[in-house]
Amino acid sequence: MTEKAVPVILCGGAGTRLWPLSTPRRPKHLLKLLSDETLLQTTARRFSDTDAFDAPIAICHQIHGPEVANQLAAKGMMPRSVLMEPIGRNTAPAIVLAAYEAAVRDPATPLVIVPADHDITAPLAFRDALRTAIATAKDGWIVTLGIEPDRASEAFGYIEMGEAMAGSRRVHRIGSFVEKPAESVAKRMLAAGRFAWNAGIFVARADTILAEAERLAPEVAQAARGALGAARRSGSGLVAIDAASFSRAPSLPFDVAIMEHTDRGAVVPVSMGWSDIGSWQAVRARLPRTTEGNALSGPVTEHGVRDSLIWSDGPPVVAVGLDNVAVVATAQGVLVMPLDQAENLKSIVAEVEKRAAE
After folding, report:
1. pLDDT score for 14
2. CA 271 to CA 278: how far, in whole Å?
3. Contact 198/259 with Cβ under 8 angstroms?
4. Which are the contacts of 161, defined by CB distance < 8 A and separation ≥ 6?
5. How many CB atoms lie within 10 A of CB 24?
6. Beta strand 142-147 with 57-61: parallel, antiparallel or unpaired?
7. Gap between the Cα atoms of 321 and 72, Å rounded
8. Which of 346, 316, 312, 318 is nearest to 332 (CA)?
9. Helix or strand holding residue 246 (H, E)
10. pLDDT at 2
11. What is the pLDDT, as a whole number, of residue 251?
12. Interhelix angle for 91-103 vs 206-216, to 10°?
């Protein structure tokens, strides 16, 4: 890397599939799920090489701004700025906000845009793919890292890899996006060998993102530009985004607003031990396990339990004669479910929260 890239860390989402530990007030990226670091801190540490990366820009809900800044500072990663959204508007407005913020210093700045709540167990492969992506982005491309799939999953979106770009067999034009296919379709895509999981990791120059946003999603660009221009800034790097302007932005994923329509999209496939830590099943897969296949955390006693996750954030938990279940006990609530039902938890939690608010 010949010039420093700026990490853009997306700290949105409530992580409701990890309820009751993850909640809107304290979402999963602020939690110590896999180690003695939070997911946010582990994400930031991937960019600790100050020869390659500049100080990060973080984007979060306004209620999390001070905590995000404190967690980054605790790891020696003082953010360039923490953009605090008054309301969630998905990733397109968030990324465009960050691009406008970065462009103030240098419109040609390469941005490495990553979610704050993912896990990567092969960091060298990640860095190698980033080098390729940054070099491609400098020529005006918006590059996404496509995760080489190891199974036919219905839980992820897919990217079809088109023709290889001139001068690089590793970089491909994007053929199409496929949102969370049925199992039969996922199996066919896996067999085809030209599809990658969509991890929501993007690399592009700030001015490339802004040009494409203004061309393809002008309402997003206008709202983000106005919201940042009217923002209130503090000396600690916290930036309170203007609510009146930002509320005019349509709530759109970056994929839908930009990537599905741009002719500047490229993908770099990579196998880097990636997980979105999107469910208790995914957490169990990442934690050390007993000989019976159990992941245990907190004051837990188990007998005759197999292939399960038992987690207590306080109260003692006794689990007996269980198989392939998640038991999670916190002050916010208690969860008991088969691990293979993890994908259904989001809608159920939404109903629980709705009843609690009534």
Report:
1. 76
2. 18
3. no
4. 146, 172, 173, 174, 175, 194, 195, 196, 267, 269
5. 15
6. unpaired
7. 42
8. 312
9. helix 243-246
10. 45
11. 97
12. 130
CA–CA separation, 22 vs 30, rounded Å? 9
pLDDT value at residue 350: 81
Which token pair is 312? 């207590």
Report pLDDT for 347. Answer: 84
Separation of alpha carbons 112 and 268, rounded Å: 13
Using DSSP's 3-state secondary structure scheme, residue 68 falls into helix
Cβ neighbours of residue 48 closer than 8 Å, sequence gap 6 or more: 75, 76, 77
Q: What is the pTM of this model?
A: 0.95
> Mean pLDDT, 10 residues at a time, over the chain (358 residues)?
84 89 93 97 96 96 97 93 97 98 96 97 97 96 96 91 88 93 92 94 98 98 98 93 97 96 97 95 96 97 98 96 97 93 83 77
Tally Cβ neighbours within 10 Å of residue 138: 18
Q: Please name the amino acid found at residue 108.
A: A
Kindly provide the b/e burial profile for residues 217-233, where b requires at least 16 CB atoms within 10 angstroms of the residue's own CB.
beebbbbbbbbbeebee
Question: Which two tokens mark 152?
Answer: 């036919």
CB atoms within 10 A of CB 35: 12
Q: State which H helix or E strand residue 125 sits in.
A: helix 123-137
E strands along the chain, which residues? Answer: 6-11, 57-61, 81-85, 110-115, 119-120, 142-147, 158-165, 168-178, 195-205, 232-233, 238-240, 265-270, 274-275, 295-297, 300-303, 309-312, 317-320, 325-329, 334-338
Which structure tokens are listed for 94?
Answer: 């968030």
Distance CA 99, CA 11 (A): 16
Residue 3's pLDDT is 79
Residue 284: closest CA among 271, 293, 274, 273: 293
Residue 20: phi and psi, rounded to 5, are -95, 5
Single out the residue of 169, 107, 168, 119 nearest to residue 147, CA to CA. 119
CA-CA distance, 61 to 12, in Å (whole number)? 7
